[in-house]
Structures are given as C-alpha cells and as structure tokens.
Amino acid sequence: MRFSEKIQALQETPLTASSIDILQVNVGYRCNLACKHCHVEGGPDRQEVMSRETVDAVVKVIRNGGIKTVDITGGAPELNPHFPVLVEETAKAGCQVVVRTNLAIFFEEGMEHLFSWYDRGQIEIVASLPSFRREQVDRVRGNGIFEKSIAALRRLNCLGYGGDNGRRLNLVYNPAGAFFPPEQSSLEAEYKKELLSLFGITFNRLYTFANIPVGRFRQFLVRTGNLEKYMTKLTDAFNPETLCGLMCRRLVSVGWDGRLYDCDFNQMIGLGITEGYPGTIGDFDIDRLAARKIAVDDHCFGCTAGQGST
Amino acid sequence: MGDYYKEEDLDRFGQIGKFKPELFKKFMDWYNASLQPGALTKREKVLIGLGVAHALQCPYCIDAYTKSSLEEGMSLEHITEAVHVAAAVRSGASLIHGIQAHNAAEKISL
Lengths: 310, 110
Fold this sequence. Notes:
By secondary structure, chain A is of the alpha/beta class. Chain A is built from twelve helices and eight strands.
C-alpha cells in the first residue's frame, strides 16, 4: 500500500499542516564531507548554494513574524558566504536559530572563527555524530572525521555548550546501514555515559533518526539489493501514533533556490508544495501554508516507522 | 544444495502455521514474550539470541539477530565478542566429552 493510501485509509483525509513554527532553510548542498548516508548528496563539488537575493527573501519572511524557529541546514551551512547574514538577521528578528553542523567544518581553512562566532550568537547546535566509536564514524563520514568531531565537541563544551545551563548542543544519530535506530532514550543514555567517560564530553539531547530512502542512502540500498527489504521494513513498522507529531506538519522547508517544500527529503526528490499553495519564498504566506495539504510519497514511511523520526 | 537456504524463505515463516495453527500461535506468543525486556534488557536478550543463532548455525537467525544487534546500537565488536562466547561454549562442550572418551578407554583397558 502506498503511503498516501495508508493515510487516507486511516484518517479518511490527506495529511495536512497544523501550524508553521519552524522555517527550515537549506542554504546549499556544498559540503566539506561526502557522507555515505547523506540524503542531500552533499559534497565539495556541489554548486547549489543559496544566493544573497534568496537569503534576503528568507529574512523578509522571518521579519514578517509567525516563525518561532529557523533551522538552518545544508550541505555544510557554514560554506555559504551569506550564512552569517542569515543567522544574524534571524536572531535580530527574535527567532531561535538552530544550525545543523557536521563539526569537522570547524577545522577547515578559513573557518577558525566559527567557535567564537557560534558562541557569541548563542546559536543552538545540532551536530551529526553517528557513533561514539571512531571506526563507525570514519567509515560513514570519511577518515579522520571522528577525531575532528571529538575535538570540536570538546571546544564547544569549553565555551559552555552542552551543559545544563549553557548553550544547547544536541547530537544526531543515524544508523550506519539498512537497519533501524535504537530506542532514543536508551541510546542517549549510552552516548552520554560513553562520551563522558571516553572523552570528557557532555551534550544535551540525542536525536535518533531512521535513514530515509532518498539520495545517497537510496543509492546504497539499490546498489546492495536492500531497497525492497528496507521499504518493506519501513512499511511494516508504520506507527499511526507518529502522525500527529510529524515535523512536516509544523514546518516549511526552503530550498537553496527559494522553492518551498514540506521537508528536506521532499526537496531532494523534487516533490514541491502541493499545487495551489505558495511554492516559492517570494510567495510565502504563512496562513495559507499552515492550512496546506502535505505532499507525500513512499519515502514518508521513513518518518512514521516505529518510534518515528522527525 | 547451494540455494538450500533462501533469504526470502524467512518471510514465509508464517506458512508453518497453515497446519496446526494453534501450536504455531502458541510458539509465536511465547517467542515474542520471551524477547520482551524483564530482568534482562532487550539488548541482553538480543545478544543471547545472536549467540544461540551461531551455536545452532541457523542462517535465518544469524541474519535476524545481527540486524537486531545493530538496531540495539551494538557494533561489530559486540557482535564478534558474543559469537566468541557461543563458539567457546560450543567448543567447550565438545572438549569436556574428552572425559567420556577417557572413561570409555579406562573401562576397557587393563
């Protein structure tokens, strides 16, 4: 059964947005890394980078009010030359700023200022760390990345990130393959214990996300003959209780070129906002978008499987 | 015999219940209940399953419990240690029977 049919059968109406609290902004696919599971297929050679004009259009939407949180992602967002403007203007508008960083970016040439810049801006950091074990991280993200990630986390801790009363430092776990993540709270407890005892690192929350079958992860599934089994696993694990908390119901995702999507995954497969609703940042209308029908496809089973990933 | 065990046959396990469905249901209820966390955590139970899978050399169980181990956040290090325990216990079981050989030899020797 297709995802749309599943939703229709369950609630007799399509999936719709409930409000728009979060504006997720993908500032481009350029990245210093090329992780094996990346749904964006980010990498150093990607040319898709959000322009200053589009950044200004995003800032205009933020200034218009209604958005509580701006969640900036990439690629590596820090590689977009207009990233500082976006962050600073977002903060000035009174929105919470969350940046998804890969941690290794802090050690790239010309990025030495990032630690103090993040600290001054009191920006919430969400950092990828698929394991607390070197072998697993380097296998997925590239040789030497674990070492850099640990060094970055230690520096962030020294600046007051990741403590009980300091700046928020959250980590993200994705499974390193065609299997589901462990239960979030138990893995968070294990991460906290291991990172503290092995490296003296503290952090606030761990989010566990299932890999969504798009982008580079989908290519891996196809190449290894795992796609059909993985899709069956996702479909069989469909949990209707995840529907009310789905992130797509509370956010709009802006692509590097200013097009609007229901989530970052839809962006990667070119599945835009449902026809009849605003489709670009220039047309952004928070009330109409908050009442939109969400565009779905079978990759959406990835967000509704088991404990849910959102 | 190379394709004696087919990967897709694991998904056909339910077909066993075509005959004597009440027995199969009892088995499934028992199986699922035994894996629920209790005095042992889910992770500990999965590792026991992985060890037994290797001791029995059941290809379906090895695939299933390896995946479950990864889904419990375990690494190849954990998996390999568990397999060593299974292999060591199984080997020890053979070796201890050396005593039976000694006993048998003793019994018929002058």
